[in-house]
């Protein structure tokens, strides 16, 4: 059985069409996710214009070290995912590189979640959860942390889905249920992973940099 035959799925009779349909589908999905996160960021912008001092004060309370470390972790995971995708397209001889990079990508994703968990614990200890007993008195500060908890939580869910997709892909490749060479599932998974990374690149300055410019 050829690699293309192993990768072909119903209802497709042609591997090329299946691949193009998969790419089209993931781009439609990514577009919808871009609209979703774009709406959240627009809401943040409006609230920040209305409460600039409160947002600056709230931004100074975020832990920039956790945020910066996690940014480096995600950017590195994006690199390993890109290498896995390119190696899959290049040669069947690079199977081990594909597997190694997928494993590193999943591990870096898990590292991000763990680091974010420590940051969340610190935020809770500092009473930076909107509601009764919130630590900051400036009007509008709770809006900042409402945005913070919402977008970082949604991002963490998306990242967890990405980790599951990469882990599942790694599992089937290790069991040789699918070939690593020219596998469209790797390409589609890579596109999803890069979306998660790009969203974080936009979230980092919105969350961690307000109030720190001066």
UniProtKB/TrEMBL annotation:
Note the PROSITE patterns from the entry.
COX3 (PS50253)
Query: Which terms are listed as keywords in the entry?
Result: Membrane, Transmembrane, Transmembrane helix
User: Where would you find the membrane-spanning parts of this chain?
Assistant: 24-44, 64-85, 97-115, 147-171, 191-209
One of the Pfam families matching this protein, by short name: COX3
Q: Which domain of life is it from?
A: Bacteria
**Coiled coil (UniProt feature):** none
Q: Where in the cell is it found?
A: Cell membrane; Membrane
> How would you describe this protein's topology in the membrane?
Multi-pass membrane protein
Q: Which residues form the Heme-copper oxidase subunit III family profile domain?
A: 1-212
- Tell me, in one coarse class, where this protein mainly resides: membrane
Q: Which family does it belong to?
A: Belongs to the cytochrome c oxidase subunit 3 family.
PANTHER family xrefs: CYTOCHROME C OXIDASE SUBUNIT III (PTHR11403), NITRIC OXIDE REDUCTASE SUBUNIT E (PTHR11403:SF6)
This protein is called what? Cytochrome B
Which organism is this protein's natural source? Answer: Bradyrhizobium canariense
Lineage, highest ranks first:
Bacteria, Pseudomonadati, Pseudomonadota, Alphaproteobacteria, Hyphomicrobiales
């Amino acid at each position: 059985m050829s690699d293309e035959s192993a990768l072909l799925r119903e209802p497709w009779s042609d591997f090329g069409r299946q691949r193009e349909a998969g790419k089209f589908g993931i781009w439609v999905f990514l577009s919808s996710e871009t609209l979703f996160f774009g709406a959240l960021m627009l809401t943040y912008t409006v609230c920040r214009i209305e409460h600039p001092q409160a947002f600056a004060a709230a931004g100074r309370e975020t832990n920039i070290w956790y945020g910066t470390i996690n940014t480096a972790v995600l950017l590195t995971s994006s690199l390993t995912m890109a290498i896995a995708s390119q190696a899959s397209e290049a040669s069947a001889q690079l199977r081990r590189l594909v597997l190694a990079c997928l494993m590193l990508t999943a591990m870096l994703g898990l590292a991000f979640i763990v680091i974010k968990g420590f940051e969340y614990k610190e935020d809770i200890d500092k009473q930076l959860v909107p509601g009764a007993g919130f630590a900051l008195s400036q009007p509008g500060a709770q809006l900042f942390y409402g945005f913070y908890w919402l977008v970082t939580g949604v991002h963490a869910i998306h990242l967890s889905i990405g980790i599951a997709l990469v882990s599942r892909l790694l599992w089937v490749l290790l069991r040789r249920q699918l070939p690593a060479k020219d596998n469209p599932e790797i390409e589609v998974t890579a596109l999803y992973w890069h979306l998660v990374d790009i969203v974080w690149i936009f979230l980092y300055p919105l969350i961690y940099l307000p109030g720190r410019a001066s």
